[in-house]
Amino acid sequence: DCKQLVQQCGVVPEMQARGLMADLVLALEHMHGCGVYHRDLKPENLLLTREGRLKLDDFGLSQVVPPPSSSPQQASGVPEDDTAHDPSIVGTPFYMAPEVLQGRARGIEAASEWWSCGVILYEFLTGFPPFQGRKVADIYRAILQRACIVPIQKCNVSREAADLVQRWLVLQPRERLVGALAVKAHPFFRT
User: What pTM was estimated for this model as a whole?
Assistant: First the structure.
């Protein structure tokens, strides 16, 4: 899995991280299009094929909602398929989005998964997750304050990689870079 890759390499070379993240973006594009939200994205759940391609694993916490083609728009303008029917707090502490911790992920589940992508990319490129703490409560506090152990722009990564991480790790989910089309258009994937 990708956790072992990070442990073995220390950091994942940016070119390899780009390919892995591209595979993850494609997987999320397909899943979200089918109304499936993983809800526990983390390196341990990202398996590697012999060819070095990424495959998602462990759908035990996933949630299925009606696909977009069968869902009308709600008054809020958010497609009904993006509305959670189970607002429980699930996931692994290091990778959970602020809105999940606050029990406010209902209606914005996809945005929460893009946050997790930001944490994963940060970890690939630095060798450690951005939010740390001795206790789970300390990790949650760091996430809610967006207090990265080391700001990504101070790490040895390209401007494009730092920008993508910063655009994914935005506290307000509606201001976060979300949606596979927008993500695939980011300069990180064009270099």
Answer: 0.86
